[in-house]
## 1
Amino acid sequence: MAFLECNDVIKLYVEEQSKLQVPALRGIELTANEGELIAIIGPSGSGKSTLLNLIGGIDRPSTGDIILEDDVITKMKDRQLTLYRRHKVGFLYQLPERNLVWNLTAVKNVTLPMKLAGRWSHEQQKQRAQQLLKDVGLERRLNHKPSQLSGGEAQRTGIAVALANDPTIVLADEPTGELDSVTTFKIIEYFKLLNKQHGKTFIVVTHDNRFAKMTDKALRILDGRIVGLHRAVDPTETSSEREEVIFVDEQGTLRIPEDILRQGGIQNHVKIKIQDGVATIVPVRDD
Ligand SMILES: Nc1ncnc2c1ncn2[C@@H]1O[C@H](COP(=O)(O)OP(=O)(O)OP(=O)(O)O)[C@@H](O)[C@H]1O
Ligand SMILES: [Mg+2]
């Protein structure tokens, strides 16, 4: 069994006014190994936050199961789910205001979740907080309050907060949405570093296609479904050659993310050439 599994996860919301059902997730199949850094990339409304909230135990799917280690989190009672969220999951959101308490210093922000979980002695909490802030390169900012930090520093403090209770998995929802390119790149480098150093599984959801090239594995989400995968052609090779794998569903449907359509020059038609049992897709230019 994989470390994390989502089996045919469906989430329907009921819109309050119209009472109509909105399908946010339409059958998510996903597996992750321990210690993997996975980006899930998709446009606005594709279901990224919904999926992350289900994996993090903030909400429950309509049907389907989510299993982390041996815990079937979708079958947990509310009380168990609260403990799961507190001890096993670290969250990082787009806005620093959501990750940090504004009138507390960086160190106090990182010790806060440890205090709530009551896991370590006062002295250990302080030491852990200092070490975590050092791990994200903020050893000189320990006593700064969020308003005295740059956007990137505030997000790095948020990463230290997410790791405070030694979670099994870290879930980040659009963590670089507010940041410029250079700072975004730096945050991704920290994810990679901490992912290796702490052996934590990181799942980052984003609309930012640059994550595809910068992470080992990037899943494509579109319209509530995982539709493809961006990865190194041969992970054992040092070559930087990358490929997109697009999944075909039972009806034979391919859903191709917009940026791949653009990159591949695909407009309204493609030609499928079949030769010796091998199919090749060739864009047909409409002009
Ligand atoms: N509480 C809710 N009630 C009704 N519909 C919802 C609710 N939350 C999300 N949705 C709908 O579910 C779909 C997926 O939403 P979700 O927030 O997961 O997308 P997203 O990929 O995170 O988008 P964004 O990039 O804009 O954050 C959207 O169509 C959205 O309108
Ligand atoms: Mg979202």
Note: The pocket of adenosine-5'-triphosphate (ligand 1) is lined by residues 13, 15, 22, 24, 42, 44-50, 207 (CB under 6 Å).
## 2
Amino acid sequence: MVQTFVQSTTDVVDFLKHQHNLIKDMFDDVLHASDPKAREKAFVDLRQLLAVHETAEEMVVHPRARHEVADGDNIVDARLKEEHEAKEELSRLEKMDIDSEEFLKALTSFRDAVVEHAEHEENEEFNQLQAELSAADLKRMAGAVRAAEAIAPTRPHAGVESAVLNFAVGPFASMLDRARDAISAAIK
Ligand SMILES: [Fe+2]
Ligand SMILES: [Fe+2]
């Protein structure tokens, strides 16, 4: 049992699918927050996780899928387009009043787009990649992806504010820069 758990958590595809579920939960945390302060905190957590998740996909997973998956170029280009749109939508959301109806409405449709994007990844890209690559490859890629985790909240309900978390607070664009730096260092 223990061994099965270790294997599943070191496979890059399983790891990213788990993050997809975490992202969905964190959208709910923002949408259902009890007060503006809690909503702000949940929104920071969500953006940090999205920054490390999407950056890891762009640097580690999509390039590999281009070559390994049938029709990889078209599939990856479509995902990159969705990720680019998500970044633009996030910078619009960051300028809104977090407690306004406008924000909640925009965040709800953004959540729907992100969930749809994740489903495309799982069904058109990740499952195929998992079938094509060896266990050793999937494990090596997971190592690079996990390197970015150091700046992301992996346990949003732990109730403990960590120093690394505060380090990454700021506009989404700067979170992306930090995620890129962490992954670059890991894949050198
Ligand atoms: Fe993605
Ligand atoms: Fe994803």
Note: The first helix runs from residue 2 to 9.
## 3
Amino acid sequence: MSDLEILEAAKAAVIAADEDAATKVARQAVAQGLDALKVINEGFTPGMREVGDLFERGTMFLPEVILASEAMVAAVGVLEESLPDKKKDGHVASIVLGTIEGDVHDIGKGILATLMRVYGFQVHDLGRDVPLTSFLEKVKQTGAGLVGSSALMTTTMVGQKALEKMLKDAGVRDQVKTMVGGAVVTQYWADRIGADAYAENAQEAVAKALELVGHDR
Ligand code: B12
């Protein structure tokens, strides 16, 4: 298969909610030495976006979306094993990461957590549907210099704004850099709520995190 065919097959496997096909494509990509992140960003993720569009249009239903996300998670698991270990000595910085409360979407946040670990960050992954107070408590407990929050719904992105305020009110906002992301989040939103950075995908997020903590790639 050509590289392009692999990317197309990855997208098609997620849209078909076919876990076997998705993991098969992922294995094939690894065998051919394709860049795992390219396959995630240009194959599986566009597939998930299409799934979201089909769901919104009422052509795909929740059980199928669940199967599609399981297919993506399995395939990403295969690809993640092939990510290079770029860890430097010690750790670059610590980040508290989680999906905002009320929101169970965690695939993208999971990819981000993995990639940040690859680049030497110590990741405190709080999971999904995380109460805002848990972000604050973890920052206080660990002294992490970065806080990353993920939101995939218009109803939960407001939690990112509330988190900014909570960190400010608790007097810790000056000690941390905040990053926001997730399908509905934009640079405009990040600027509006006063977050330090926004990134469209995990790769860009790592680059911005390294910039925020003053590290070269
Ligand atoms: C998969 C999925 C689900 C799965 C989630 C499984 C899981 N474990 O995550 C299931 C089936 C459970 C689900 C449920 C629901 N979903 Co849903 N879901 C999706 C879907 C199709 C894909 C999301 C995804 O995984 N994308 C792939 C990943 C890789 O991309 P990503 O998350 O964007 O992450 C990347 C970047 O955004 C970035 N990033 C992510 N987080 C962060 C954080 C930081 C700090 C940074 C810097 C970067 C960053 O890096 C990531 C990797 O590159 C989206 C459609 C879409 N367009 O996103 C809808 C979507 C998000 N869901 C939607 C809805 C409405 C729901 C439900 C309410 C449906 C229902 N009626 O029950 C429930 C919500 C339940 C809840 N309370 O949370 C809507 C939200 C609409 C809106 N604007 O608010 C969407 C947009 C679909 C749609 N078009 O209608 N969903």
Note: The CA atoms of residues 140 and 172 lie 8 Å apart.
## 4
Amino acid sequence: MASNTIRVGNVEIVSLSDGLLEFDLCNFFPSISQEQWQPYESHLTEEHHVRFNLASFLIRSDGKNILVDTGLGPKPTYAPEVPWGQLMHDFAANGVRPEEIDMVVMTHLHRDHVGWNLMMQGEKYVPTFPNARYWMSAIDWEACHQPAVRDRFPNAPTCVWPLAELGLIEFMHGEHAITSTLTAVPTPGHTPGHVSILITSQGERALVLGDAAHNPAQLEQTDWVSRADMDPEVTRQTRRHLVERLEREQIVVAAGHFPAPGFGKVVRLQGRRSWQVL
Ligand SMILES: [Zn+2]
């Protein structure tokens, strides 16, 4: 497997994982037929399922440790066999301690990006990363409280809302400078406040994609939306513009749901846009 660490100027990005999720195609991409998938079979499992890595990216920059997204969270006691819930093991395997995290940044508030934010200690919620503050889009914060779409954010009441009572939230509004090297760039559609994280250092750039794409096939088929994309048309527009930019400017991409470690570039091979693993 490719290295789980890359450098972008003075910044180091480490790809960590909470494990995997797997779905039937007809379940996750209900509007895309089996035939349409044929040219992209290499991006499916042998059983023709879509399999998603659950990456968290640890960004070491300016003496700070910044964690982007926090996976699905601890394994449920009723289902200890699930193939996720691994993030703390991966922290240990990479010699990282939760106390070292200074900032947690969420690309959006869906359940597989906020799962390890908090732990229960007795009756109380405590931050899993005790020295961190938590950055999230103000628009997604609003959305996860709206009755009409609240079911799209099923673990927000336990993994996001208590952060407010703990006084740990930093809201991001529009294009938002998080640090001197990290900028949140609005990439809405998947959720209304979805952001990707642009890293710029010494003239080099990388983008933590978030869920602006779930599978490498969508780099060419930018119109393929999944059931998880809350606004299909905005998702398509965002993805089209973003992927064009990533190809044109040859920005390194950290794609959290692509096969681990998820580092690559958008390139054109024989006229077709495709994913080139770093
Ligand atoms: Zn996701």
Note: The chain has a mean pLDDT of 96.
